[in-house]
Amino acid sequence: MTFAERMLKIDRRIIFLVIGLCTLLPLLYPVGLPIKISPEVRGVYDHIESLPEGSVFLLSLDFDPASKPELHPQAISLLRHAFKKNLRVVALTLWVSGTGLADQIITQVAGEMGKESGKDYVFLGWSPGGTAVIINMGQDLYGAFPADYNGKPTKGLPVLQGVANLRDVNYAVSLGAGNPGVEAWYVFGKDKYKFEMGGGCTGVMAPGLYPLLRSGQINGLIGGLRGAAEYETLMGQKGKAIAGMDAQSATHLAIIVLVILCNIFYFSLRKQGKQQGYSGA
Hints:
The protein is α/β, with parallel strands linked by helices. It has 2 domains: about 5-30 and about 245-280; about 40-235, 3-Layer(aba) Sandwich (Rossmann fold), CATH 3.40.50.620. The protein has helices at about 5-10, 10-30, 40-50, 70-85, 100-115, 130-140, 140-145, 180-195, 205-215, 225-235, 240-280, and strands at about 55-60, 90, 120-125, 170-175, 195-200, 220-225.
């Protein structure tokens, strides 16, 4: 049996092992392959970078654990950037199923950055009403959220000093996995109360939000895991998004190489068969 024949009859479990290693190793040890930064991701980064210390940054984490692989890294990077800039962070969620995850993300990053709840940031939690919550916040933030997620009254919190409604927000970003999400925040919030806004979403949702981006209705968009990896690159950190992109690239490369090799072996055997046929004739 020739080498080509042996390779074409290789145990499929070896192929599964190769693909598994190409996926697992980059996740454990991210390489940080070069990633080109898109203008839409840079738009969000540059606007946060331009905000003076003490500005009010609103982050709406409008997703649940089903979208965690793509939107969790986006939220981590945005919060790290905001805390690094010493912005006053006001966080909430419009998805009741994502409340616990949102609290976990904010608590984790605040702990890393040494930030204090009530002073440097506040997590308002979830309030029933969907898009009506955005309208209520535009009229009276304290009416929409009388207390934060931990039950502490929002009135009198240092982080909310001078903030009465959405008109006092300097920049808002919605990380949305559906509705309500980015579009709801634009229609019921930004368009009415005139604050600057960016967005983040899952990869499959990004094409549907590009009209808002191209028309200037939002000034930036972080799309999927790739967008999160771009933001991590701008922040100079190797997080889960960069690791995920490394794993994806390594796996795709392995599949391409295997397809090419199989075709080479197949045509090699085919050519040998024809030559043997001619010899027999």
